[in-house]
Design brief:
By secondary structure, the chain is of the alpha/beta class. The chain has 14 helices and 15 strands. The chain has helices at 24-36, 60-72, 86-96, 103-114, 118-133, 159-194, 210-218, 261-266, 268-275, 291-304, 350-360, 373-376, 391-399, 422-428; strands spanning 10-17, 40-48, 77-80, 99-101, 198-204, 235-241, 245-251, 279-285, 312-317, 328-331, 337-341, 380-386, 403-408, 414-420, 434-436.
């Protein structure tokens, strides 16, 4: 469609540090994105500037350096780790005489390779057309010519206007088809809600092991690989949990720094599975030194799509790459589950995750199973002060065989020394007529 140089697989990478946003982690992720797209890296060109040049984004000296490297390395593609304006992209191509791609275009190319289902292909095409529509103004050399020839003379329209109209019509058609997909998904979600089937959604940064964990939990054959955006199409499977029964687990597309807003809008049908979930499993690469930044990026996207208030369990994956880190459950001060540490690749800690999910999905007021010490953690000694209206709760404590000693005070209240798990502590804190004193030795 464009009169532009043909793109190949030999790429020169360009990374400019503007001091306020670029980082070494961002640079490493850039390399992974390029590799995931299937390009061979000829050389990486780095530099520093106070602000982008309005014409070429980079200075004249760096521009000439890139041109020489591209010629010597026979590179047919230059990829920038930044967003370029249409004018900058066109000016760079004219000077370098090879195809120029920015970060958004690179991510779109990866998405186009990964899409397999009809819905996924529609979403990728929509995102590509929205990106392409901003490139029309500077992307052609013949756009100002009006249609001519016999039967076509007259006011007519320029080639640019024709292409804008065609792209606009295609975008409207894609939106209509995706609206139908949204309606179909909404009908299925309503049917699940009527049957009281709970929904879980795997979210997280790209390449944290979401699909590997999904396959281990459900036995599905979803494609999983050590590359960015290995999963693009949403997948749903049924999963049986102890004490809960059947739930739906959804595997979704991973997030990335500076995810283009056009992609978020195009993938609204997929992301609605996350917005409507009862519980989010936020999968995190525990071995990644930049995991805290990745967690913040994911939470930003969740807030953008309106899913930031959904309960969340942080799944610290890839503990097989850490030393002396066995599978375990981490709780907050109030006893609620905060993180589960596991290895999806080695299938270690999956039972802890399933029990943790079951505990978080328990209906309000339902008693957690006191016989799950693996997920509940090490039992602790506590002294309970039970009011007379808590007689039924006192009877349950004896049924669970957690009472170690009992006395009464002058007010007729029971002082009960119990040995209970953190999960049961969180439950007792919510019960009327029950007050927890300091640890009893």
């Amino acid at each position: 469609m464009f009169e532009r140089p043909q793109v190949g697989n030999q790429a020169v990478l360009v990374h400019i540090d503007f001091h306020e946003s670029a980082s070494q982690e961002n640079l490493e992720e850039f390399r992974e994105l390029v590799t995931s797209a299937g390009a061979a890296i000829v050389e990486l060109v780095c530099g520093k500037r106070q602000k982008p040049d309005p014409r070429y984004f980079i200075g004249s000296g760096k521009l000439e350096e890139i041109r020489q490297i591209a010629e010597q390395g026979q590179a047919d593609l230059v990829i920038f780790n930044h967003s370029l304006s249409p004018a900058q992209e066109r000016n760079l191509e004219q000077h370098l005489q090879c195809r120029v791609l920015d970060r958004t275009g690179l991510i779109l190319d990866i998405f186009a390779q990964r899409a397999q289902t009809f819905e996924g292909k529609l979403q990728v095409e929509l995102a590509q057309l929205r990106h392409l529509s901003t490139r029309l103004v500077r992307g052609w050399t013949h756009l100002e010519r009006q249609k001519g020839g016999i039967g076509l003379r007259g006011p007519g329209e320029t080639q640019l206007e024709t292409d804008r109209r065609l792209i606009g019509g295609r975008i409207k058609a894609l939106n209509r088809r995706l609206d139908k997909v949204c309606q179909q998904r909404d009908l299925r979600r309503k049917a699940r809600r009527k049957s009281s089937v709970r929904t879980l959604s795997l979210v997280g940064y790209t390449n944290t092991g979401k699909s590997t964990l999904f396959n281990q939990l459900t036995g599905a054959g979803v494609y999983a690989a050590d590359q960015l955006f290995a999963t693009l199409d949403p997948t749903l499977r049924r999963l049986n949990l102890p004490g809960i029964g059947e739930v739906i687990l959804a595997d979704t597309v991973g997030f990335v720094r500076h995810l283009p807003h056009g992609l978020v809008a195009a993938f609204r049908a997929t992301l609605e599975e996350t917005v409507e979930a009862d519980l989010l499993l936020h999968v995190i690469d525990a071995h990644d030194e930049a995991r805290h930044d990745c967690i913040a990026q994911v939470n930003n996207v969740l807030a953008e799509i309106g899913a930031d208030d959904i309960p969340q369990i942080e799944v610290m994956n890839k503990i097989d790459l850490l030393e002396d880190t066995p599978p375990h459950v981490e709780r907050s001060e109030d006893g609620r589950i905060r993180r589960v540490w596991l290895s999806a690749r080695e299938a270690r800690g999956l039972d802890l995750l399933q029990q943790a999910i079951a505990e978080c999905l328990l209906p309000e007021g339902q008693v957690p199973d006191p016989m799950t010490p693996a997920v509940s953690g090490k039992p602790q000694m506590r002294q309970l002060r039970l009011l007379p209206n808590a007689a039924r709760l006192r009877a349950r404590l004896f049924e669970w065989d957690v009472v170690r000693h009992e006395t009464t005070n002058e007010a007729g209240e029971w002082l009960v020394d119990v040995e209970i798990s953190p999960g049961l502590i969180a439950y007792l804190e919510q019960q009327d007529g029950c007050y927890i004193n300091e640890s009893s030795q």
